Amino acid sequence: IIRNSAFSLLRIIDDILDASKIDAGKLEISRSKTDMRATIEGVALTLQHMADDLGVKIHLFIDPKVPEFGMIDGGRLRQVMLNLLSNAVKYSAHDLTERDSHVRFSVSMTSTGQMRIDVKDNGIGMSQEVQKNLFEPFMQDEPVATRRVGGTGLGLVISLHLVNRMDGRIQLISEQDVGTEVSVFLPLETLRAPSNLVDISGLFVDWIADETADEHEEIKRYLT
């Protein structure tokens, strides 16, 4: 509880500071060499305790085509992913949905070389009316849910500005009482790194599991 409260307070302070920078036109982007996989995995790990407390399972998938290192603003990338994933976890809390709650957090590369971030949940979703004003400052979902999850309502607004500043785009699909899927597309310059992988071509892999269709597809992508 203390960990989650401290994290939430820090997020609120950061959101307010960034909102001020947006208003002043001083929200800066600084690209540098970024450890992509460590950044992505770090986001999931940061929110794991919150997800456990809320009864939400996070399913993380990093496509093997995602480079080990990329030229991007790693701090801002992390901020965008934290905003999207924390929203998905909060609005999928078991006591809000009364069903098995899960969030799928995946990162892949498009055929045009862009990085694609997908965050899909089976939470409370959003009405069409809420979606119309979703990217307005301090806008949150329905009042009852808002009181229970807290926050400033600035996360998506800040994420939109950051994605735009990084020459990317963001799209959202949501259905009330079904869930929400947010996708972010960002340009990413791949930086090559020495490969320490062992050649396993020619080996056979056999497994028995009860994964979902999405998870079966993810395993296939790792093995091909």
Question: What is this entry, summarized?
Answer:
The protein has 224 residues and is α+β, with helices and mostly antiparallel strands. It has helices at 2-24, 36-46, 48-54, 74-90, 94-97, 128-132, 143-149, 155-165, 213-223, and strands at 32-35, 56-62, 69-72, 101-109, 114-121, 169-175, 179-187, 189-191. It is globular.
What's the total helix number? Answer: 9
CATH architecture: 2-Layer Sandwich
Overall tally of domains: 1
The CATH class is Alpha Beta
Q: Give the assembly state of these chains.
A: single chain
Low-confidence stretches: none
Mean pLDDT, all residues:
82
Could you explain how this protein is built, in words?
The protein has 224 residues and is an alpha+beta fold. The protein has a single domain, classed as Heat Shock Protein 90. 43% of the residues lie in helices and 23% in strands. The protein is built from nine helices and eight strands. The strands form two sheets. Strands 2-4-5-7-6 form a five-stranded mixed beta sheet, with helices on one face. The longest helix has 23 residues.
Write the layout of secondary structure elements.
Elements lengths: L1 H23 L7 E4 H11 L1 H7 L1 E7 L6 E4 L1 H17 L3 H4 L3 E9 L4 E8 L6 H5 L10 H7 L5 H11 L3 E7 L3 E9 L1 E3 L21 H11 L1
Parallel strand pairs: 2-4
Antiparallel strand pairs: 1-3, 3-8, 4-5, 5-7, 6-7
Helix pairs in contact: 1-8, 2-4, 4-8
Key attributes of the depicted protein:
9 helices, alpha+beta, about 220 residues, five-stranded mixed beta sheet, Heat Shock Protein 90, three-stranded antiparallel beta sheet
